[in-house]
Write a structure and sequence with these properties.
By secondary structure, the protein is α/β, with parallel strands linked by helices. The protein folds into 3 domains: about 160 residues, Beta Polymerase, domain 2; about 140 residues, Rossmann fold (3-Layer(aba) Sandwich); about 70 residues. It is built from 15 helices and 10 strands. It has a 6-stranded parallel sheet with strand order 7-6-5-8-9-10. Strands 2-3-1-4 form a 4-stranded antiparallel sheet, with helices on both faces.
Length: about 425
């Protein structure tokens, strides 16, 4: 039995290849079923994200050929078109790879947490399709435990590495409580959406979203219990904002020194925290000259992000050590499975011996023999029957100079005394 991991990711394959090998949710169950039905496959799961597609299988051999041919057939793509982009791992390296992926150590953004949720989705899909198998199912469970331990014992995910998250983190350093603050977000793109999400998760008091297209602003604001305004309404709402984050594609500044100065006067010089994430800049640089305004640009935040990336890299070293230990734990579990059948057979043999001796003892009691005599004979008979075969085998091992078996017997039975 082999644990096999085969896949492509953002490092090995361009998006043109990744999108051809993607497995969206609507075809995942049927794809898992056809993969599991391959003759050499006893377990299968598929992880498919925008950055990677990976196949985790329990197979009869360590060759990925069956899987690669299945991919080609399933996706109607020639093997030569994608095989050079593939990576393949077996057994301990497969285990390590899955652990690293789940911990975010193999992600485009080091330590990002979303991949763990995506792996749990892959596990759930395979579970519902009935394609996991014993060993692969256990591996997924151990993977989740390893990822949890890494998250708990290291700082791999504690330091923000996006400008949106860094902006929110900085605002938390300036204001005692975001729940009492109003945030004005200018734009409606991905960065502003991410900023809104982080603010919302950190219990911001109010969110106002301004955009050139009001409908886009409204659609975004409605996700975070905020309200939308058009850009033309900025002057009348700017004074309400304790936090201003701007990220648009405008070629000219949206907020000038004069409009911000007017807002500060209306606020009676209550401090305003402003972050300009746009290039070209949305906020005139001269705004920084105003008292009670704390203006940061994307370059200012980059220093924080670089520091946080250093922190994550250091945490990643700790994570790798944890993964080394967790891989060995899982390998130990796999090795123990080889002994399970021996333990089962030995127990069945002992139970059969017990039942035969007990039946004989009950018959003797029914025939009128005293309970003391029957119990003594039962104990004697049961002891002799249980030790007969091991004793014979140990004696033969000694006669044949199999000292390794004699030593193993002493260890297995925990015998004391001089070997």
């Amino acid at each position: 039995m082999t644990l096999l991991a085969v896949g492509i990711n953002y490092n090995t394959a361009p998006v043109a290849i990744r999108e051809r090998l993607a497995f969206p949710a609507e075809i995942l169950e049927s794809s898992l079923t056809t993969l599991w039905n391959q003759r050499e496959v006893q377990g299968a799961a598929i992880l498919s994200t925008c950055n990677r597609t990976e196949f985790y299988c329990q197979t009869d051999n360590n060759s990925p050929d069956t899987l690669i041919n299945w991919i080609a057939e399933n996706k109607k793509i020639d093997v030569a078109e994608f095989s050079t982009y593939l990576y393949s791992h077996t057994d301990s390296q497969s285990i390590r790879h899955m652990f690293r992926v789940a911990c975010g150590l193999d992600s485009m953004v080091l330590g990002e947490p979303q991949i763990l949720g995506q792996m749990k989705t892959a596990y759930q899909a395979a579970y519902e399709a009935g394609t996991l198998g014993k060993h692969l199912g256990k591996l997924f469970q151990h993977t989740f435990s390893a990822a949890k331990k890494v998250r708990t014992d290291t700082a791999i995910g504690s330091s923000p590495v996006s400008v949106a998250f860094a902006a929110v983190q900085l605002s938390q350093q300036i204001f005692d409580s975001l729940s009492e603050q109003t945030a004005l977000l200018i734009g409606a793109g991905e960065t502003i959406e991410l900023t809104a999400r982080h603010l919302y998760q950190n219990n911001i008091g109010r969110i106002i979203i301004a955009n050139r297209t009001y409908d886009k602003a409204h659609a975004l604001a409605s996700q975070f219990d905020g309200y939308a305004i058009a850009l033309s309404e900025l002057p009348s709402h700017l004074a309400e904002a304790d936090i201003v984050v701007s990220s648009t594609a405008s070629q000219l500044p949206i907020l000038g020194k004069g409009s911000v100065e007017s807002a500060i006067k209306k606020r009676k010089h209550k401090p305003m925290f402003m972050v300009d994430l746009a290039v070209p800049r949305d906020i005139e640089p001269e705004v920084e000259q105003l008292s009670d305004v704390y203006l940061y640009t994307v370059d200012d935040l980059q220093h924080t992000i670089d520091q946080n990336m250093d922190s994550r890299r250091e945490a990643a070293k700790q994570a790798e050590e944890i993964i080394d230990t967790q891989v060995e734990h899982f390998l130990s579990w796999m090795r123990s499975q080889g002994a399970q059948s021996v333990i089962k057979d030995y127990r069945q043999q002992a139970e059969l011996t017990r039942d035969e001796a007990l039946a004989k003892a009950l018959k003797q009691l029914n025939n009128g023999q005293t309970s003391e005599d029957v119990l003594n004979r039962l104990a004697y008979t049961l002891t002799n029957k249980l030790i007969h075969t091991p004793s014979t085998q140990i004696r033969e091992a000694g006669a044949n100079d199999r000292h390794d078996l004699v030593a193993a017997a002493r260890e297995i039975f925990k015998l004391k005394g001089t070997p």
